[in-house]
Structure prediction request, 287 residues.
Amino acid sequence: MNDLHGLSGLVEYPLARRGFVMTGLISGLTLATTRVEAQVVHTDTAGLEAGEVQIPVTDGHLPGYFARPAGAGPFPVVVVIEEIFGVHEYIKDVCRRLAKAGYLAVAPELYARLADLSKMTDVSKIVSDVILKAPDATMLTDLDSAAAWAGANHGDLTRLGVTGFCRGGRDTWLFATHNTQLKAAVAWYGPVAGGTSAIQPKTVLDVAGELKAPLLGLYGGKDTGIKQEDVQEAAKRARAAGQTVEIVVYPDAPHGFHADYRPSYKPADAADGWKRMLAWFKQHGVG
Prediction:
């Protein structure tokens, strides 16, 4: 099948006719993975404006979550890209943490058209029935729309960054090859290789040379799902094209080491990665 320049997903999945399955966000934490709620980080909203929003997109409105400092701003913007589990409490808290650091953070629910992730408990079904059916072309324009929403709501798009976790880390790489407004990107353990399809036609390795913003990659040395040689190859291809890429590997960290609600959480590595992320943003004009 021809990939129509990577846009075949928009043809095969006529999203405007499908409508939106999710019109609101998940309340609490995902039910689809083991949780260790005693260690969950909770960030309050003191001094912040925060809550659920509806983000205009080409075929309707995506639910999303935002947090920003109180006041008029404009504030530097960080688009936050979810894992495969939806914009649940962990992702919302990440937005609030960024707001406490001075940012307007916004996280769109990218899978709202395909499933109600609040009701899904089987990770394999989430991957097969949702993640692999979400066209990359739509994901990229949805992220553009989230940034545009931020720019119209006290955000400064001349200071635009992106960060994402797991699948969102992969999408962070791709968004950094797509959006020319981006000043900096931070990918947390984002896969760079893997299978492709008509609606997800390219891997990070395929497009790493097309990065348009400096990228920091934070990876776990004990991540059994991501080969470090693949990550280093992606960085090599980006650097060969003249882009700035830094890869930090935490030797004892597994996949998901920032996810404080899961057993994979490594507090020291998560804190170090967070510090590096904020420094990366400021170094490259997002702050």
Notes: The longest strand covers residues 155-165. The chain has one domain: 4-283. Residues 1-17 have pLDDT under 50 and may be disordered.
